[in-house]
């Protein structure tokens, strides 16, 4: 199985330029992190789709550009604001559908949010059902200081949503939350569909894979769910000096999967 790369690694490089670079580098699976509303319009997406198709690249997932506002727009206790934001979420699903993505990723609501867990799950379910209408599944990522940073919350979410639960495990977010990777993977269970890979040590919580202390080989081969999940290198641009280091990291990781 290939190790992909998220365009988020190259921010603030323009999204289309990041896709072009990944195509030229021979990366076959990618994730698109949108950075503005205009990047979800048909004309822009057609450009991205053309690059991907001509280079046999598969776009696994798209990521919400408004993730910082999700607690306020989607998971607040003001219901009208949720209703009003639905067109923005629909634009994310529509973009994913045009690009052939399996998943649309969100961060969700903060741990300090006022709505109940049940209301959170119902809001997620409403969005999930809208995404399914165009063939894109909504996926919850574990994020530090968000409700999803808790394995217990993730476990409850999985039980509530059943087969409609889809999760993204982000390694660096586990590090920042002080959560064991294996505990989070177990909480997600067979609903774990996608993984963001990074490394860390006692000084830095986000490094390129295989440059820190994380033992990737047992993790990547821990369970059939992890083996079958799609995987992306996703780091911040402070984790490397040049783009080629990101590609080299992904290729080295592929050698650890058996």
Architecture overview:
- The chain is an alpha/beta fold.
- It has a single domain, classed as Divalent-metal-dependent TIM barrel enzymes (TIM Barrel, Alpha-Beta Barrel), CATH 3.20.20.150.
- 43% of the residues lie in helices and 15% in strands.
- It has eleven helices and eight strands.
- The chain has helices at residues 15-24, 42-54, 70-73, 79-99, 117-132, 151-161, 171-177, 181-188, 216-220, 224-228, 243-254, and strands at 3-6, 29-33, 58-63, 103-106, 137-141, 167-170, 192-197, 230-233.
- Strands 1-2-3-4-5-6-7-8 form an eight-stranded parallel barrel, surrounded by six helices.
- Helix 5 links the parallel strand 4 and strand 5.
- The longest helix has 21 residues, at 79-99.
- The chain is globular and about 45 Å long.
* Total number of domains: 1
- What is the N-to-C succession of helices and strands? EHEHEHHEHEHEHHEHHEH
Number of DSSP strands? Answer: 8
CATH architecture: Alpha-Beta Barrel
> Over the alpha carbons, how many angstroms does the gyration radius reach?
17 Å
Shape: globular
The CATH class: Alpha Beta
From the 3D structure, determine the CATH topology: TIM Barrel
